[in-house]
Structure formats: structure tokens, C-alpha cells
Amino acid sequence: MTTTKAIVVRELGGPEVLKIGEVEIAPPGPGEVQIRHAAIGLNFIDVYFRTGLYKTNLPFVPGKEAAGTVIAVGPGVTDFVVGDRVAYAGSDGAYCVERNVETRHLVKVPDAIGLDTAAAMMLKGMTAEYLLNRTYKVGPGTTILFHAAAGGVGLIAGQWAKALGATVIGTAGSPEKVALALAHGYDHVINYREESFVERIKELTGGKGVDVVYDSVGRDTFPHSLDCLKTRGMWVSFGQSSGAIEPFNMAILAQKGSLFATRPTLFNYIATPAELAACANSLFDVVQSSKVRINIHQTYPLAEAARAHADLEARKTSGTTLLIP
What is the value of pTM for the model shown? Predict the structure, then answer.
């Protein structure tokens, strides 16, 4: 048994509960490898677990995605060897220097992709992949509205949707974020602090509305997102950065045009090793093709995870943020 540095949450609450300390780490067990992290992804889902919005047992190490190098392999592991460059999204416990991970969560990182880039894109990039290719299949002739266009998922999705041939509309909360989104595939970006995105969508679509709204904001954009959809359009609620949506009468979907609504999560789309590999490989391919570029906008030392969370919640960040062990 050895020790490693990790952020351990012992009580639910604000960013201040994120404290670094020493934790024990055992040799990898059957079906596991031990990884030394090069970079760790910061995501809003980490906030949800820290505050208790998403339930887990205390104490816990937060974090859903990271990339690093295999430093030991457990009994029976044949598909990974020491020295492999790997990444994952979906295995809890990423906020640490070293850890054991079940191989079913891992993918090998192509040589052309840096480990920092891999850590920056696994959860966000695979989220964009399933949203655009499987939740609602985007292609030529599709018009989409993507809220939080300058966020980590938004910047990837904007480029990817454009590469698929869609008309891509986004929302953002400042002139700087509007400009950032416009540089990442968006045809139009609406500053929601200065104008009604519902009215602007009507102008941009000639009153028809969009085919699909991708909404990770939640309370602040509901039910207005529904008013942006064309008849039989789809509202995809995949997050709630502004707070949870209150229960609503399903009849509203009929009243606003026989709308479809779904609340997907990445982990239901990568539940098997085959699904994970397909999703990750699709992401790696589009990045290596240069149709989608992954930009790292902020980095924080792992020990300063509390500051990173505070900045994320205050909407001081844009794009992708990494924690560096």
C-alpha cells in the first residue's frame, strides 16, 4: 500500500469543501490498471456531486475524466501494458495524482493527441458526439440552438455541428464569449444578457424555429427553450448549470407543438466497452481530421480545485478547464 495526493470531499457544500490530502492506494486489482495522471478535466457534473444535487456516498474523490500513463497492471489484464497512454470519462475519482481504474472505462489515446488534450475532451467531446450523432442526428439542413455556446461542450459541438452541415446558433453571456463561439463554428450567437433569444431565433428562422435545442443551463432557459422549437422539434436537457428545472405539466409539450423532450446522460451512451470505444474513436477521428480543435482555456493546480470550482460557478471560465496534478 502506498499513498498519493487527492482532493477528498468529506462534507457537501461550496468550493471550500474541496481539500487536498494524502490517501492510500492499493496495487491494481483484477481488471484494473494504475494510472499516473497528466491532466484532469473539470466539469459541471463535479459541482453537482460536490453540492449533493447528484447523490453519492461520503467521503469521495470527485472528478469524472482524466488522462495519463499506465504505471502498473492488475492480474488478468492483457489489453493494457505499462507505458500506455490512456484516458477515461465516467470513472469517479479523477481528482488525484495516481489511481486505479477498471480497464472497461479506458481508451488508448492516439499518438497524435496530447494527454492534456485528451483530458480536456473526453467527457465534453463524447457528450458532443452522442448529442449530435445519436440523441438527435444532426446533418445538412438541420438548424440547432446550443445554449452555453462558449462552454466546454459548446465549443466542441459548434465546430462538429458545422462540420456535419448544420446551421448552428448559440447563446452566450458576454461579448467576449460571443466572439469565442463565433470562432468555433457558430453561424449566429445571441448575447442573452442583451436580447431575447426567443425573439432572435424567430428572426433567424423566419418564424419557423429550430429543429433541436441543446440545453445544459436548466432553470434560466426553461421554458423559453421550448418556444424556440419548430413543430415536433426536440428539446434536449443535458444539464442544469443555473439550477434544476421545476416539475412541469407534460401538456406544455403538446401546447407548444407536439414537442419531444429528453434528459440524456453520457454514461447511458457509453455503458459498454464497445459503445465507449465507438464514441471515443468518433471523437478522436474528428479531432485528428482538424474539423474540431480542442482549446484549453484555463488550468489550475490540483491543489487549487476549490478556486477552479468557484470560477466555474461564477461563469468566469470559458471553454475547457484542466486541473494539473
Answer: 0.89
